[in-house]
Amino acid sequence: MHEAPPVIDRSFRGEQERLLGHDIEFEDMTARTLDNKASAHMDNEHREETDGGHVSGVDGTPDNGEDGQAPPVYRVYKRRWFGLLQLVLMNIIVSWDWLFFSPVANTAAEYFSTTSSIINWLSTAFLFAFVVAAPFTIYALHRGGPRLALITSSLLILSGNWIRYAGTRASPPRFPVTMFGQILIGLAQPFVLSAPTHYSSLWFSPRGRVSATAIASLANPLGGALGQLINPFLATSPKDIPYMTLYVAVISSVATIPSLFIPAGPPTPSSASSNTAPIPLRQTLRLLSSNANFILLLFPFAIYVGLFNALSSLLTQILTPYAFTEESSGIAGAILILVGLAASAISSPIVDKYKTYLPFIRTLVPITALCYLAFIWAPGTRSLAAPYTICAILGASSFSLVPVALEWAVEITYPAGPEAGSTICWSGGQVLGGVFIVISDALKEDQGKGDPKGNMGKALVFMAVVALGAVPCVMFLGRVGERGRREGRLEVDKGVGERRSGDSEEDGRDA
To answer: How many CA atoms lie within 13 Å of 55's alpha carbon, on the beta-carbon side?
Structure first.
């Protein structure tokens, strides 16, 4: 007899399969949980070094990926403040070195047994040295970024300060040696003065670039204010000149050390525009030379920077014929700069938030020009109120303009690298500053002539005419050229720049 086949309990088998399925699902859930915890731990470790998470748009809001793909992650890092602080420190030092002898021009002339006109060449040669170093600055920033520029500048500042001290310490004092040291420091200036736009573009999100550029760029005239304010008290007589030089050489040497520890760049890009590969230098220069708005901005920028440099260098010689002391002239220079820094600290975050570049520039440029016009009559009042008041207004308008103009130049010349446009603008200002100093010194009344003797009234008229002549250029900004109605870098950071050019959305975001 055949045995009957075993009866299979289908409900029992179904229960087994159900339990087995639960075991598999539990194992999958456990694996996924462990993976999520590990990912979260790594993300938290990374976020500890950053000031925030995902930044995709100009307002910092995250974009959604296309076709389910994860969007690119843009972060800003806390360590960016270390590099910005060093940029500030270096700009302070190099500007202090520039106006080193200007506030004590008469005392220095007596020490070197020469004239104040010869002493003026110490600051004039400093400005011309900027132009000589400008091509190397563009190359250094393009190839090595802010780190290479800072290290190069540190070496030049270090050597220049001690050579300058050797010239003042020699017996008799060696003016040519002092001049050589001054020129070396002048060669260092473009490497730190042209770096802020590049650094802010590399390390900061669109919400903070104008403020970062303002902090680093305007530290430069802060150094000039320190020189105007401190140096007259360090050198009250000719014999104090070597000691003044030694004190500043020591301070400058200490300030250069942190440059060795600046990171080359952030681990991840701060924005879409900073994630773009730099275009070749030749193509960058072609883009700049064919950009009508950049050319229109370059002329007034260079003129007003040049006028500011000339006025800062000659302020003591402008005021002292009218019975002002070197100390009161130094205070006027400090007011010019310190009030300007305060005004820029207020205005830069506002422009950063609303991106009102052009209305801001068009408003402040005429105010700046009118200040140069009013300054013609300020020394003749023989009262501190007039020069101090005009210096305060002039400083507020000039300093507020600088970072906004530099950032707008970067916007309208994108994708050209920020280092090229910035260096060209600053070079123009330094060249014209040197030229304006030479012309103003030639317009100075001889010591035995004029009322009062040795006054610089004609030089002030010359400055006012040049300042007023630059105003029309600004009124055409944004109304000519293909970039007249849009700002390329901002659009890329918003994710719409390439779409407006007819490219795909994915290509625009990758750009």
So the answer is: 28
Amino acid at 294: F
Altogether, the residues listed in the chain come to a count of 511
Q: Are 294 and 288 in contact (CB under 8 A)?
A: yes
Helical pair 326-354 and 385-413, crossing angle rounded to 10 deg: 40
Q: Is residue 172 packed enough to be buried (19+ CB in 10 Å), middle (13-18) or exposed (0-12)?
A: exposed
Predicted confidence at residue 504, as pLDDT, reads 32
CB 498 within 8 A of CB 273: no
Token representation of residue 457: 């009234």
Query: What's the rounded Cα separation, in Å, for the pair 355 and 210?
Result: 9
Q: What is the CA radius of gyration of the chain?
A: 30
Q: Which residues contact 356 (CB under 8 A, 6 or more apart)?
A: 350
Distance, CA of 423 to CA of 193 (rounded, Å): 8
DSSP one-letter code for 102: G
Nearest-angstrom CA–CA distance, 309 and 13: 92
| pLDDT tens-digit series, residues 464-478 | 999 999 999 998 988
The pTM of this model reads 0.74
